[in-house]
Write a structure and sequence with these properties.
The structure holds 2 protein chains of 2 kinds.
Chain A: E1 12-14, E2 17-18, E3 21-22, E4 25-26, H1 27-46, H2 56-75, H3 84-100, H4 113-135, H5 150-200, H6 202-238
Helix pairs in contact in A: 1-3, 2-3, 2-6, 3-6, 4-5, 4-6, 5-6
Chain B: H1 3-14, H2 17-38, H3 43-72
Helix pairs in contact in B: 1-3, 2-3
Classes of the chains: A mainly alpha, B mainly alpha.
Chain lengths: 241, 74
């Protein structure tokens, strides 16, 4: 049973130790570099020949752009548009991370809570800074809407404060839990393929094929959910309810 | 009872919350199908909410899975 969790182990490829810190280049780092390289190469190569009416390759890159742009436009106001590069980067990073894990011998760096937690914490802190930059100290009104009467307000402030930071937790654990559970399920079912051998192995093989299809769907969907929630949090900071 | 048996028991108990999650995910799709059934023209507008609702509901169910995994493997 411990075998199923071995796929998430982080192995250092190039050990780099600075004093007491372990800054090795691990398989997780390798896949992150791969995600950056793939998305950059794909988008720049598709836009190499820029025509007003896009050819096939350019259309695919424009699909990605328009998808994230439409998400940001539908869920946030006009002034959130200046944060589009951040939202697009987050979307491509999470999408590539989720999909690279489905390749053979692939490693899902988004299945580690430290990666998604760091990403979600960054988004929440970024949104907080944006809120303070725009509203000054009036950003604390996000914790207590002005239409709430006195005693209810005293109860509401700690609850709202807690739920404000719980958003970072839920954002990260949602992505991590989906990736972990999908990959463990896949590992177990494909283990059955090996265990049942040639004669019986095709039954769990069909199950594994169905699960991989579901996993591709979940990978894309979770990347989209992460992006849309970042847009919603950004909008809630820019326009206090 | 030793620690390992308690871990298995705890992991099993942590999974009970997933039953409600499964029912509620089914409820989302049921409502979606009913809505599209009553008004087929609104399919594009509610489809997005169906997918987002499904992902967030499933995520909450998976939080209990995370607790189960933590108890099993630590």
């Amino acid at each position: 049973m411990a075998n199923a969790l071995d796929q998430f182990r982080i192995e250092p490829i190039v050990p780099i130790h600075v004093g007491n810190l372990d800054l090795s280049f691990t398989n997780s780092s390798l896949y992150m570099v791969a995600a950056v390289v793939i998305s950059t190469v794909f988008l720049t190569a598709a836009m190499r020949r820029r025509t007003l009416i896009p050819g096939r390759f350019q259309s695919v890159a424009e699909l990605f752009y328009e998808f994230v742009a439409a998400t940001l436009r539908n869920n946030a106001s006009e002034e959130a548009w200046r944060y589009f590069p951040l939202i697009f980067t987050v979307f491509m990073f999470v999408l590539c991370g989720n999909l690279l894990g489905l390749t053979p011998y692939g490693f899902t760096y988004t299945s580690h809570i430290i990666v998604t937690g760091g990403l979600a914490l960054f988004i929440i802190l970024f949104v907080t800074v944006v809120g303070f930059m725009k509203h000054g100290l009036g950003y604390f009104h996000a914790l207590l809407p002005t239409s709430v009467p006195g005693p209810a307000g005293i109860i509401m402030v700690p609850v709202e404060l807690f739920s404000y930071f719980a958003r970072a937790f839920s954002l990260s654990v949602r992505l991590t839990a989906n990736m972990i559970s999908g990959h463990i399920m896949l590992h177990v079912v494909t283990g059955f393929v090996v265990a049942l051998g040639v004669w019986g192995g095709w039954v769990p093989f069909l199950g594994a094929a169905a699960i991989i299809t579901l996993e591709v769907l979940i990978a894309c969907l979770q990347a989209y959910i992460f992006t849309i929630l970042s847009c919603v949090y950004l909008e809630s900071a820019l326009h206090l309810h | 009872m030793d620690v390992q048996s308690m871990k298995f028991l705890a992991a099993g108990m942590a999974h009970l919350g997933l039953a409600v999650t499964a029912v509620m995910v089914g409820l989302i799709w049921t409502t979606l199908i009913k809505t599209v059934g009553r008004n087929p023209a609104c399919k594009e507008s509610v489809e997005l909410f169906g997918w987002v609702g499904f992902a967030t509901t499933e995520a909450i169910g998976l939080y209990s899975l995370v607790v189960a995994l933590i108890t099993l493997f630590s």
